[in-house]
Write a structure and sequence with these properties.
With about 575 residues, the protein is α/β, with parallel strands linked by helices. It has three domains: about 5-210, Rossmann fold; about 215-360, 3-Layer(aba) Sandwich (Rossmann fold), CATH 3.40.50; about 380-560, Gcn5-related N-acetyltransferase (GNAT) (Aminopeptidase). Helix content is about 40%, strand content about 20%. It contains 22 helices and 21 strands. It has a six-stranded mixed sheet, with helices on both faces. It has a five-stranded parallel sheet with strand order 2-1-3-4-5, sandwiched between helices. Strands 10-9-6-11-12 form a five-stranded parallel sheet. β19 (about 530-535) and β20 (about 540-545) form a beta hairpin. α3 (about 60-65) packs parallel to α5 (about 95-115), α12 packs parallel to α16 and α19 (about 410-420) crosses α20. The longest helix has 22 residues, at about 365-385. The protein is globular, with a radius of gyration of 26 Å. The mean pLDDT is about 90.
Length: about 575
């Protein structure tokens, strides 16, 4: 796509995408004005209401202090422009002059990182000499410079700072496609449009995860998808297992991705392959959910989402048949669908692209245990379907809630909850680990987290509230989809009110921000007895006088203090 087309389409999307603005600042010591359109357009096509702000030319340190209210900052800090003509002057510098440059940039790195300590998401490109390395067979000065600075950068960068290996992007495209030196020497515009597009593709998973749009479940067809051949025709002994694909899927499963099967097949035959085929990598214990029958795949995928209590937009579906792929694309537009490529050697590359859709910045204990948690969820669903009385069913679960306040050991999971939870999320604010740590250490904030257990096992850390004492306001209130439908939310609001009272709050303010994913909680505060103060567009403001609050009596949920 040409740059002019990107500009046109980006302008068209600007007034269409809803939701809160996601602000990204780009700071650089080169000209990067074309990045704005490329980034905005690419993110807007993913339903992210992106707004890109450009810092001044070669004003990185000052701009890092100036951009305070942004969601993310990206740095293009190029070695070749530390001083004018460094790429050809560096070999002639004295040792002292060389050290002076190193110390200057190290000092600036310190200043920048200090300025950015409260920024939710930071991306800093590794310093690169690839473009201007003219002596690649020797350990030359420009290589020495980048190695020194990259080592310092790695040492100094903490949680929330992503170091991006820009050489991977350049190498994928080639140097010739990444740059046009005519523009660099005339206007300090180093990179091409093609580079910016590839660079965005490289970092896209980070923004998908940060905005709560990472996928949750990877669903496979069987015949000619998990294996080559048709099980019903070729038989158990004559199918060829796609081991590379299955190893990649197994890796995702260990990171907490739900692996499922949606196949028109004989269930007994498929289960026998999962259990006994000597070449199978994925086994029954790795498969969280199976819909193996002769029903249409659209209905089966709907049922999978329902059984797992996740949105259809959390599903990725892989199938070999053009008919099935096109039907799912047409009927379930929010499901991400991939067709097995005709050439087998391309399949692994496609799977690696699919893996990026499930990117998470950190791995938590809940991710490791997620397979069991979702299998337990399906057991609950089955038992619920067998029960004739909802209250009796909920009472039979033996539900308990363990309450934690300001628990530093839960940083990763709490941050992950804000980034992944969409359905039961009253404000959909996204916070990094550094944000959560800052809240926990702030005397004005109370970070309340809950772990839910029942007779089937633990659902993990699945609820979060952030309470601001000075403003008497609930900043964040959310519950994982894994525990929705058990009245956990009403027990949780009781807990929040109790904590607010202990901190001598007389009133409690709250806000609901409507998104296309959370309409189910639109009236939650109304049901809890909060009064509507104001409604503007998609924002509803609420207030509660503490002495008027009526606790919901949910006797079958026990409360425990986790401290």
């Amino acid at each position: 796509m040409k740059y002019s087309e990107i500009i046109k389409l980006n302008n068209e999307l600007e007034g269409v995408i809803s939701g809160s603005e996601y602000k990204i600042a780009i700071l650089s010591n080169i000209m990067v004005h074309q990045l704005k359109e490329v980034f905005e357009f690419s993110l807007r096509t993913k339903s992210i209401n992106a707004k890109v702000l450009l810092g001044g030319y070669d004003n990185i340190v000052q701009d890092s202090a100036r951009f305070k209210n942004v969601n993310a900052i990206i740095f293009f800090w190029e070695v070749c422009n530390f001083i004018d003509g460094l790429q050809y002057k560096v070999e002639s510098l004295s040792s002292q002059e060389f050290e002076n440059i190193v110390q200057k940039i190290e000092t600036e790195i310190d200043l920048v990182l200090n300025n950015l300590k409260d920024t939710p998401l930071v991306l800093i490109n590794k310093f690169s000499s690839l473009i201007f390395d003219q002596f690649s067979l020797s350990n030359n000065r420009i290589n020495q410079l980048t190695e020194r600075l990259n080592a310092y950068l790695k040492e100094k960068c903490g949680v929330g700072v992503n170091i991006i290996d820009i050489d991977k992007v350049i190498s994928k495209l080639s140097i010739e496609s990444s740059i046009d030196l005519r523009y660099y020497y005339s206007s300090k515009t180093l990179y091409s449009i093609e580079f910016y597009k590839e660079y965005f593709n490289h970092i896209k998973p980070i923004f998908i995860a940060a905005t709560g749009k990472a996928k949750k479940a990877l669903i496979f067809d069987c015949d000619n998808t998990l294996w080559k051949g048709t099980l019903g025709e070729d038989g158990f002994d004559n199918i060829k297992i796609y081991q590379e694909i299955q190893y990649l899927a197994l890796h995702l499963a260990k990171k907490g991705v739900i692996i499922g099967i949606c196949s028109k097949n004989n269930p007994n035959d498929v289960n026998e392959v999962l259990k006994s085929h000597p070449d199978m990598i994925l086994r029954d214990e790795n498969i969280i959910i199976k819909k193996i029958n002769w029903n249409d795949k659209v209905s089966n995928l709907r049922n999978i989402a329902q059984d797992l209590n996740i949105g259809l937009d959390s599903l990725v579906f892989v199938d070999d048949a053009s008919f099935e792929v096109e039907l799912v694309k047409k009927e379930l537009v929010s499901v991400e669908v991939f067709q097995v490529p005709p050439r087998e050697f391309e399949y692994g590359l496609m799977m690696r692209r699919i893996a990026n859709l499930f990117y998470t910045p950190s791995r938590t204990e809940e991710d490791i245990l997620k397979s069991k948690m979702y299998k337990d969820q399906i057991k609950r669903f089955d038992e619920k379907n067998k029960s004739t009385d909802m209250v009796d069913y909920l009472a039979s679960l033996g539900i308990s809630i363990t309450v934690y306040t300001d628990n530093l050991s839960q940083l990763s999971r709490i941050s992950q909850l804000t980034q992944k939870t969409n359905q039961f999320n009253l404000t959909t604010k996204r916070y990094s680990e550094s944000d959560i740590k800052r809240f926990i250490l702030d005397d004005d904030k109370i970070v309340i987290s809950i772990e839910v257990n029942d007779k089937f096992g633990s659902s993990g850390l699945t609820g979060l509230a952030i309470l601001c004492k000075k403003t008497s306001k609930i900043d964040t209130l959310l519950l994982s989809c894994r525990v929705i439908g058990r009245n956990i939310e009403y027990k949780f609001i009781n807990i929040i009110v109790d904590i607010a009272k202990k901190n001598k709050l007389k009133t409690l303010k709250a806000c609901y921000v409507k998104t296309h994913k959370n309409p189910q909680v639109e009236d939650f505060y109304d049901k809890c007895g909060f009064d509507v103060v104001n409604k503007v567009n998609n924002h509803s403001m609420y207030s509660l006088k503490m002495h008027y609050f009526k606790y919901k009596d949910i006797k079958y949920i026990k409360e425990r203090d986790g401290r």
